[in-house]
Amino acid sequence: MEGVNINFQPRNVVLIILLVTSYTNLIYALEKTHVEFIQTSCGLTTYPTLCFNSLSTQASAIQTSPKLLAQTALSLTLNTTLTTSLSIFKMSKVHGMAPREVAAMKDCIELLSDSVQELQKSLEEMSMSRPGSKVSGLVMSDIQTWVSSAMTHEDTCSEGFTDDSKLKSVVKGKVTNVARLTSNALALINSYASLIE
């Protein structure tokens, strides 16, 4: 087998370097555009810093798609709500709680379970349409209603605890994060819905 004669002339090397540099700059510019899209979109939410911090890591998947942004926010919210629900369920198994705290924990777990169901339905409906296609206005209306309902469940969760309860403080901290993510997801869903009306 004879060796291949590769002629590396200076202009060929320069051309290769220019192509690689251009490609790298294009990728950087696209990524920057994706991140800027998320930052601008999150600026429309009630909790823009939380929105940006939670979604910017998915910039390459979201790109500049309002639908993917809303869907990703909804998925993140669902996952966080599930994790929070499990955490509160585990907390409810601790012995020594007052009867009112036990009842409040039970109510909160039930409300978060309802929230999970509403968010799950919403995500399933958003995911059913083909990639790149828009969700119908009627389906979007259902999704908006379900996510809004989930937010109400989350807001109601800590109401049954006594005001001076340490447990209320812990639960409220966990549920507040979920409620804020849900609020942001709803804002992004509303923004997407306004594009398909």
Explained architecture:
The chain has 7 helices and no strands. With 197 residues, the chain is an all-alpha fold. The chain starts with 9 loop residues before the first helix and ends with a helix. The mean pLDDT is 85.
Keywords:
mainly alpha; 7 helices; 197 residues; elongated
Layout: helices, strands, pairs:
Layout: H1 10-42, H2 48-55, H3 59-62, H4 66-92, H5 99-128, H6 137-156, H7 166-196
In a few lines, what is going on in this structure?
The chain is mainly α and 197 residues long.
Query: Can you summarize the main beta sheet?
Result: none
Global structural class: mainly alpha
Number of helices: 7
Evaluate the radius of gyration.
24 Å
Mean pLDDT: 85
Unreliable spans: none
Helix content: over 70%
Please write the string of helix (H) and strand (E) elements: HHHHHHH
The proportion of strand residues reads under 5%
Apparent shape: elongated
> Oligomeric status of the shown chains?
single chain
> Got a strand count?
0
Terminal CA distance:
66 Å
